[in-house]
Every structure is written in C-alpha cells, then in structure tokens.
C-alpha cells in the first residue's frame, strides 16, 4: 500500500505532509466514521474554482456560456472517474468488505468523490495554490490543447434540447421518480420525457443534475438511433 500511495502522490505532484488527511481522502464512508465525505464537499468547490480559473486564463475570447459548458464537461462524474483510474485510485481506496465485493472500488461515483476529496485534503494542508497546481497537472494539457468549447462537446441536456428545437418539437420534461439513501448521500432517479414523441428514458446519479444529464443522454441516443440521423 505504501508503494501505491507513493505512486499516487507522484502522479498528483503533491506529497502530503499530513498522512492522516491523505488517508481520510481515500476512505469511503462504509469503512468507518473518519471518511472522506466532508473533504469531497470541500474539494468539489475547490475543483470548480480551479477549473474556472484555468479556463478563464486560457480562453480569453470565450463567453460565459462557453466557459460554463467547458467547466461542466471537465468536472462531471465521467471525467473525474477517468482521472481516478489514471491515478490508480481503485488500488488505494479503503472501504468495507461488502462494498468492495459489490464493486465499489470501480464505481464511478465513489472514484469521482475520492478525486474531489484529495483536492479538499490538499487545500486544507497547503492552501489553494497547491490544489490549483494539482488540477493544472491533471487537466492542464486537456485545457491547453483544446481549441474551444466545441472540443468539449455540449452537455446532454443542451444537445437534446437543440435537437428537438431544430425539429420544432417541444422541449423535454424532467421529473424525479425516486430518491434513495440518506440525505447526505442520496441517489436520484430521474425521467426525461418528450411527450410529443411519446418517448422517455431514465437516468440515475448522485445529484439531480447528474441524473437528468444521464437520462437526456440516453434519450438523445435513442432518438438519433431510431431516426438514423444526428
């Protein structure tokens, strides 16, 4: 484990002087009371600010809408999941045996939370500049080499709405079908529907927004596949 933690810190470009913070950032709530959810809460805000700063610095000619779409792409669960895999987080996360047997170490939401928790831990230990340096190391090349918002793609809700509007079809509706889990760790199940076409798809996520995006993505994929054109 020590070698794996050394490798993680090398990839982050930050060596923790307070090992207990690193340990907490890598501890899932199923493992014990000293888990990473508070660090994840803080890291989420730090990540958003750091990415916003890097985008503002790189894309001087982009408007607020483009910057917002780029940031949404970079901080979404799927992007953080990929970063977590590149960092080797599945090998160093601590969780209960039951969670591990259920595939928790590979679950995108758990891995994304751990990335944010690491940023929160770095912020507490060494301040914003240290956290910004980590974000720059992890995402700087992606941000620097992109030519603009188009390289990041539109979020699924925007893409679906534009697809429908281009065909003069009313915008979709979203509704929460179910919520599961305790208040601090809820999972949302959301339906995205287009009544005019009598179609709907479900999405699930750790926030309502994430669930809506997943449902929209599934519905857009279904609509474009059914009709044979983008």
Compact summary:
With 230 residues, the chain is mostly helical.
What CATH architecture of the largest domain would you give? Orthogonal Bundle
The N- to C-terminal Cα distance equals: 47 Å
| Total number of domains | 2
Order of strands, main sheet, comes to 1-2-3
Reading the helices and strands in chain order gives HHHHHHHHHEEEH
Number of extended strands = 3
CATH topology call of the largest domain = Ribonuclease iii, N-terminal Endonuclease Domain, Chain A
Strand fraction band? Answer: 5-15%
Helix fraction bin: 55-70%
The coarse silhouette is: globular
So what's the CATH class of the largest domain?
Answer: Mainly Alpha
Poorly predicted tracts of residues: none
Give the mean pLDDT.
90
General description of the model:
The structure is a single chain. The chain has 230 residues and is mostly helical. The mean pLDDT is 90. The chain contains ten helices and three strands, in the order H-H-H-H-H-H-H-H-H-E-E-E-H. Strand 2 and strand 3 (199-205) form a beta hairpin. The N and C termini lie far apart (47 Å). The chain has helices spanning 2-12, 19-25, 37-58, 64-75, 77-87, 97-101, 108-126, 128-145, 156-166, 208-227; strands spanning 173-180, 187-194, 199-205. Strands 1-2-3 form a three-stranded antiparallel beta sheet. The chain folds into two domains: 2-149, Ribonuclease iii, N-terminal Endonuclease Domain, Chain A; 156-227, Double Stranded RNA Binding Domain (2-Layer Sandwich). 30% of the residues are buried.
What's the SSE blueprint?
Elements: H1 2-12, H2 19-25, H3 37-58, H4 64-75, H5 77-87, H6 97-101, H7 108-126, H8 128-145, H9 156-166, E1 173-180, E2 187-194, E3 199-205, H10 208-227
Antiparallel strand pairs: 1-2, 2-3
Helix pairs in contact: 2-7, 3-4, 3-7, 3-8, 5-7, 7-8, 9-10
């Amino acid at each position: 484990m020590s070698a794996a933690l050394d490798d993680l810190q090398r990839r982050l470009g930050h060596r923790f002087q307070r090992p207990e913070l690193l340990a907490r950032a890598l501890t899932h709530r199923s493992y014990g009371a000293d888990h990473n959810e508070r660090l994840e809460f803080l890291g989420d805000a730090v990540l958003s600010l750091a990415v916003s700063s890097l985008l503002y610095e790189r894309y001087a000619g982009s408007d607020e809408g483009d910057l917002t779409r780029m940031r949404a792409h970079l901080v979404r669960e799927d992007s953080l999941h990929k970063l977590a895999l590149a960092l080797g987080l599945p090998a160093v996360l601590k969780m209960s045996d039951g969670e591990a047997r259920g595939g928790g170490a590979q679950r995108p939401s758990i891995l994304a939370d751990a990335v944010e928790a690491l940023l929160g831990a770095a912020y507490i230990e060494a301040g914003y500049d240290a956290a910004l340096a980590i974000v720059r190391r992890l995402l700087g090349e992606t941000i620097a080499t992109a030519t603009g918002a188009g390289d990041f793609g539109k979020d699924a809700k925007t893409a679906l709405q534009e697809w429908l509007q281009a065909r003069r079809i009313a915008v979709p509706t979203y509704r929460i079908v179910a919520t599961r889990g305790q208040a601090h760790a809820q999972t949302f199940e959301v339906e995205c529907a287009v009544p005019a076409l009598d179609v709907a798809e479900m999405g699930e996520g750790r926030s309502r927004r994430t669930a809506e995006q997943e449902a929209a993505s599934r519905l857009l994929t279904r609509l474009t596949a059914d009709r044979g054109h983008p």
